[in-house]
TrEMBL record:
HTH marR-type domain mapped to chain residues: 28-69
Record protein name field: ROK family transcriptional regulator
Listed Pfam families: MarR_2, ROK
Species of the source: Variovorax ureilyticus
Annotated family: Belongs to the ROK (NagC/XylR) family.
């Protein structure tokens, strides 16, 4: 299945009936977003709109600054075709990732490209100071746009763990410090800082959204998404729609058990205890190495690489077990793996997981294709930033909105 075929599953058809102007405009924008620059004839084919309707819509979208013409494509019989592309300057949004180790605040344009990035590293997020840091960064990004472009900001999307105060013993965080997050409404706290609409989504679900709409998810209809960060997590896409479940915890890979419980009645370890970057950070520190190397290419270079390999010897079979278990329950076309590390590290992780999958029996089930994620460490913040863009410009808001409910 090629990208254009798969993308058709992500978008509804347009309608040629009167009164459908805004919906059809969104359908056209979605077709371009999912397939890349397209000539008007191809847009008409993909959306099932008439050529005349597409012409009218493109004229309006050009006037609104949402699409622009690319250079004509020559070499075929007849007139050269002129691809229409999204205008990066047509709209902006802000994505906020609140993680257990860092804060990222990104300015994202209409094509989901990061224009500016403001970050803050910490041992654990303290709500007493974190929201002040967010307020300062929001003001900085708005000022950098200038008054005219700031009018094109359509909202803020926040990506954060559903339980920021959880697993404090594993992280070595004081219970009273973790408990500060128990009664905090993150969305409301950020909404009080701005007049822009604010949405909240689980961090790994946001990363999955970014992969679904702007990455490999455009060509894989049903997939399990694995994101390796301070804690490992994931998301589940079935028939090109993110399936969060009633509580938003579908695809919560980090909680999957590793084998059976102990003879003493102790519960089995969870995947996050073996396959999270928090574990690798501790291993680097114990070896007298800079733990920050988990986020860059040093992780696969001397002297970090021997420690990284030691971590992979436990992490890779554990992830493979989770993939095998998920495949026994779900019809998956693929498994997409990404994380908060370098592309070199991702390649090593994928190779190790693939080798670990070889050691499982696949009798009775189909082994899914293992794929590298295309977005990387910014996936959660970009996925958050796409919430307001989809709310304003996509035909199908049900693709992933209200995932925190």
């Amino acid at each position: 299945m090629n990208g254009a075929q798969a993308a058709e599953g992500l978008r509804p058809r347009g309608s040629n009936q009167v009164g459908m102007r805004q919906f059809n405009e969104r359908v056209v924008l979605q077709a371009i977003r999912l397939n890349g620059p397209l000539p008007k004839a191809e847009i008409a084919r993909l959306t099932h709109l008439t050529a005349q309707t597409v012409q009218i819509i493109i004229t309006r979208l050009e006037a609104d600054g949402l699409v622009l013409k690319r250079a004509p494509v020559r070499g075929k019989i007849g007139q050269p075709s002129v691809p229409m592309a999204l205008n990066p300057e047509g709209a902006y949004s802000i994505g906020i990732k609140i993680g257990r180790r860092s804060l990222d605040v990104l300015l994202v344009d209409f094509t989901a490209q990061v224009r500016e990035r403001l970050t803050l590293a910490y041992e654990f997020p303290d709500p007493d100071t974190l929201f002040d840091e967010i307020r300062v960064r929001l003001k900085t990004l708005r000022q950098s746009l200038g008054p005219e472009r700031a009018e094109l900001l359509h909202g803020i999307g926040i990506a954060a763990p559903l339980s920021l105060g959880g697993w404090q013993s594993l992280l070595g965080v004081a219970p009273e410090q973790a408990a500060k997050w128990n009664d905090i409404d993150i969305r409301a706290r950020v909404a009080a800082m701005t007049t822009l609409p604010v949405e909240l989504v689980k961090d790994t679900a946001a990363a999955c959204v970014a992969e679904l709409v702007a990455g490999r998810g455009r060509s894989v209809r049903s997939f399990l998404y694995v994101f390796i960060d301070t804690f490992i997590g994931g998301g589940l896409v079935i028939d090109s729609h993110l399936r969060p479940g009633a509580t938003g915890n579908a695809g919560a890979l980090g909680s999957m058990p590793l084998g059976l419980g102990g003879a003493d009645g102790a519960p089995p370890r969870q995947l996050l205890s073996a396959a999270s970057l928090f574990t690798l950070e501790k291993m680097y520190a114990q070896a007298g190495l800079d733990a920050r190397a988990v986020a860059d290419s040093r992780a696969v270079e001397a002297p970090w690489m021997p420690v990284t390999r030691e971590w992979m010897r436990e992490a890779s079979p554990a992830i493979a077990m989770a993939i095998h278990s998920a495949t026994a329950l779900l019809e998956l076309d693929g498994v997409i793996v990404d994380g908060s590390f370098s592309r070199e590290m991702l390649a090593e992780v994928l190779a190790q997981i693939d080798g670990a999958l070889d050691r499982f029996s696949w009798e009775g089930i189909a082994r899914p294709e293992l794929l590298a994620g295309a977005i990387g460490a910014d996936a959660r913040a970009i996925g958050g930033a796409m919430l307001p863009l989809y709310a304003n410009f996509a035909p199908d808001r049900d693709l992933f909105l209200k995932l925190d409910r």
